[in-house]
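During the no-cost extension, the postdoctoral fellow (Dr. R.K.) reprocessed legacy sequence entries with the updated structure-token encoder. One reprocessed record is reproduced below for audit purposes.
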Amino acid sequence: MSLMLAFLIFCGIGVVSSMTEYTKADAEYEKLREVVRKAEETREGTRAGGQSSIEVLDDRGDQSNGSSRGNIGGQDNADGENDSKDQDNKKASTDEQKASPGYPFVSENQAEINQAMFENLRSINEDICGWIRIDGTEIDYPVMHGETNHTYLRTSYTGAYSIAGSIFMDAANMPDFSDLHTILYGHNMADGTMFKGLYHYQDWAFWEQHPYIVIDLPDRRLVYEVFSAYTTVYWDTMYDEQYEAGPDQLDFLQRLLAASEHQVDVPLQEDDRVITLSTCNGGTGTEYRYVVQAVLRQTLP
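Re-encoded structure tokens follow.
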């Protein structure tokens, strides 16, 4: 696919939408969130009264090397309208844990919760490969993995047309998030839904309070730490690059870190797995993209 063709397709040139369509689209996702909430009732119940069955963890957990993928030929993101492993594996003290804002709580029965949740989700659509949440934003959505990067561009999880489309993984990525670099795309909706919330990371105060991205899978929870956020263009080679664990991967991660609007002291290693969340920057038809990138810190079974 040529870069220009990819640009035209993913920018959705000529699409005019109304706030009514936005509201209708998000209402569909609210129905699906109810499915997730029901599966999480046990976890919510154990939180009540500050029970000790909920803990805040601060070790990096297991990070197995993911399979690599080759270049995908100028694939772009779905823009919107308007738009070292830690060998010590030490746990922080309770006070240190509490001092780390925004860190997700973890239930003792997280694996059981996720299993029940995905049994329900996949009975609705087998293409649901994960669920992404970012505290302090509207980002609370299923992650779709379609046959191509067109599949969920203007299609909701129901399979019906939707102006807001879906949050979807690059078709070339492994749906279990095992690649060293996984890319997720989402529209930048004018009403604040889909990936519009990524723009909060332009505000350093927000970043400090919400440094983590949580992705639930059928058998585990992945916790990522944001290390870079910046504006780029749809032809950035970052969208195509994927390395095996080693010096090239570390160089790649350091380049992403250096591009960030806000510089953070986040250690990166040559076998780290990262995600890129990508959305449109500016109005429909522009070449600019806004990306937030995060490194896997924990795998919680």
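The chain has one domain: 3-300. The chain has a mean pLDDT of 75. The remaining legacy entries will be reprocessed before the final report is submitted.
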